[in-house]
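Fill in residues.
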C-alpha cells in the first residue's frame, strides 16, 4: 500500500482518484493542484486507487490559515488496513510542516464518525478537549469536525 501526495504534474492520478470515488461524470479541476493551496493524497495498491483524501489551506481574515480536510474516501475492501488513518496522518503531517496549527474536517457521516476517525491518529497520548468539540492531539494540532451542508 502506497500513500502519496499529488503534485501539480499529477493530473492523471487526480483524475483516477476522482473517477474511482466520485464517478465518471465528475472531472477534476487541474488548477486544484497547481495553486499550492489544494492538497490531494492517493492511496494505491499497485495500479488500483483504494483511497483518496483532499482539502486545502484556507486563509482567514486575521492573516492566519488553517487546514481543511474536505473529503476522505477509502474502498470498503481495504478499510481494515487503516488506509484512512494513513491518508489522514499524511494530510496532518504536511499541515504541521507548513506551520499550521488548526485543522477542520468536513464529514457527511456525522460527528461521531469523524471523531472516531480522528481518534485513530494516535493511541499513545490522551487528547485535551477544547471548545467547539475540537481537541488537541499529541502533536498540538487542533482538530475539529463540521457537518457539510449543501447550499441551495
Amino acid at each position: 500500500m502506497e500513500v502519496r501526495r499529488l503534485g501539480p504534474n499529477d493530473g492523471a492520478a487526480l483524475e483516477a482518484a476522482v473517477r474511482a470515488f466520485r464517478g465518471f461524470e465528475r472531472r477534476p479541476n487541474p488548477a486544484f493542484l497547481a495553486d499550492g493551496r489544494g492538497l490531494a493524497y492517493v492511496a494505491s495498491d499497485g495500479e488500483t486507487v483504494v483511497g483518496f483524501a483532499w482539502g486545502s489551506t484556507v486563509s482567514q481574515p486575521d492573516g492566519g490559515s488553517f487546514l481543511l480536510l474536505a473529503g476522505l474516501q477509502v474502498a470498503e475492501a481495504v478499510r481494515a488496513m487503516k488506509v484512512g488513518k494513513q491518508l489522514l496522518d499524511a494530510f496532518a503531517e504536511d499541515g504541521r510542516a507548513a506551520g499550521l496549527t488548526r485543522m477542520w474536517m468536513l464529514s457527511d457521516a456525522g460527528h461521531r464518525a469523524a471523531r472516531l476517525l480522528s481518534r485513530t491518529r494516535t493511541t499513545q497520548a490522551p487528547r485535551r478537549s477544547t471548545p467547539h468539540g475540537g481537541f488537541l492531539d499529541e502533536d498540538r494540532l487542533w482538530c475539529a469536525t463540521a457537518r457539510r451542508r449543501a447550499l441551495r
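Helices lie at 11-22, 31-34, 83-97, 111-119.
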